[in-house]
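User: Small ask, check this?
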Amino acid sequence: MPHNLLLTAPDAAEEVGALADAMAAEPSAMARHYVPASPRILHANPLVEPGQRAELVFTAPPTPGRYPYLCTFPGHWRMMSGVLIVE
């Protein structure tokens, strides 16, 4: 199954995950790579199919903090997540 990766603003994982859950019922969700519209998403890559690779290159946020990252393919964000720590 495909996966993506979104880096969010601090404390935005739940909000972005809920938006991703809601968009699963939208006909355009797959074409939008299950990336919901939110200003709290800092960076995202498109869906990557099994056997494929993707690279997400970005400059770390300048403000120290804990920046959650997650996969927003339906049902994934609650288990496929982590935190980028900027010091």
User: Anything to note?
Assistant: Strands lie at 3-8, 41-48, 65-70, 81-86. The CA atoms of residues 6 and 44 lie 4 Å apart.
